[in-house]
Write a structure and sequence with these properties.
Number of domains: 3
CATH architecture of the largest domain: Alpha-Beta Barrel
Number of strands: 21
CATH superfamily of the largest domain: Aldolase class I
Shape: globular
Order of helices and strands: EEEEEEEEEHEHEHEHEHHEHEHEEEEEE
Largest sheet: 8 strands, mixed
Number of helices: 8
């Protein structure tokens, strides 16, 4: 066990966790909602420090991150557990079912080992993904510090549930914040994630971008009957434009039936295309369609001249027409972080 970094005492016998926005108040011997944080003898401990369920070398596009060192390879790692209860979770086996036993399917992965493996395999960075990285906080923080010392970029693929104080703790060491924004109403959020209050998710995403200079991209998995209301999606597009900026990438992805949502159909392509067109109407220059291999909505088009500057095939970059991060046709600089574009890894896009 590893003592948690962020918690406080509540009365004489309880502790409040400060890592995620649920802020669980945990009695002696109890665990938080994520089931990975234990109150033991007056202290709060992480049960998953250095415990990995999944390790892989991925293209950065898989996250998806499209404007953050496209074409690069990233060392990806995840642990187990989650603080959300999404009924259609695609990673259920590690997010929830693995909690039934303490060590099923886990391997020891020290922070220094993550960095060494990333470098040995030619990766440009490290990403924490597959399950919610907030609950793996102590491990990801220590790894991120080591990664920055060795010149690697760092990224979170997150449901956005970090508290402001947790974000501020890891902020100096985290470069990219790929955040799910699952809906834009409390009712829809409750249906799709098991939590209703989403306003702090939005506020922390803005804080990541504006206070810490992280590169932010958003994902919404459009799920039939749960979060596909056109008016709500339009409100979400407007929020991204106004709060994060018109050049913030928004990935509009296709839902596929799974787990407790197996009775729903895949998202109709026409619904996704209408949402994509709406996002462009609302001024989002870099809306994308996801889980639609070969669709032109996967590609990047220059907001200056409209030419395709990054063509993708699945999770691979097939062709680029950029020079130092700028369109070769009109010279417009594409927002984001690109190889050879100058500036350090901590430079805001």
């Amino acid at each position: 066990m590893k003592e948690a970094l962020l918690y406080e005492r509540v009365g004489a016998a309880k502790l409040r966790c400060g890592v995620c926005q649920l802020r669980c108040v945990i009695p002696a011997g109890g665990r938080g909602a994520c089931r990975t944080r234990l109150h033991h003898e007056g202290r709060l401990y992480s049960l998953i420090y250095g415990q990995a369920s999944s390790v892989c070398i991925d293209p950065i596009e898989k996250k998806p991150l499209y404007h953050f060192y496209p074409g690069s390879s990233v060392f990806s790692a995840g642990s187990r557990g989650c603080n959300f209860r999404c009924p259609g979770c695609q990673n259920y086996q590690i997010s929830h079912r693995a909690l039934d036993t303490e060590s099923a399917g886990l391997q020891r992965l020290e922070p220094a080992e993550s960095v060494a493996l990333a470098i040995a395999h030619g990766c440009q960075g490290i990403c924490w993904t597959y399950n919610e990285p907030a609950i793996w906080f102590e491990h990801t923080l220590e790894t991120a510090r080591l990664a920055k010392e060795r010149g690697l970029y760092t990224a979170y693929v997150t449901n956005g549930s970090l508290t402001p104080e947790a974000l501020d703790t890891i902020g100096p060491y985290l470069d990219a914040y790929r955040v799910d924004i699952k809906a834009f109403s409390r009712e829809a959020y409750k249906r799709i994630a098991g939590v209703a209050r989403f306003e702090e998710i939005l506020a922390v995403a803005v804080r990541a971008q504006q206070q810490w200079g992280m590169h932010v991209e958003c994902v919404t998995n459009v799920t039939p009957t749960l979060n596909d209301n056109p008016a709500m999606l339009r409100d979400l597009a407007r929020w991204i434009r106004d709060a994060l900026g018109a050049h913030t990438p928004w990935h509009i992805t296709r839902f596929y039936p799974y787990l407790d949502l197996s009775h729903l159909p895949p998202t109709p392509v026409a619904v996704l295309e209408r949402t994509y067109a709406m996002a462009r109407e609302e001024g989002l220059a870099y809306a994308y369609l996801g889980n639609l291999p070969g669709h032109p909505g996967e590609d990047t088009y220059c907001h200056g001249c409209g030419r395709c500057v990054i063509q993708r095939r699945g999770m691979a970059v097939a062709r680029t027409e950029l020079a130092d991060g700028a369109c070769i046709h009109c010279g417009t600089r594409i927002p984001g972080r690109f190889p050879g574009a100058g500036g350090s890894a901590r430079q805001r896009a």
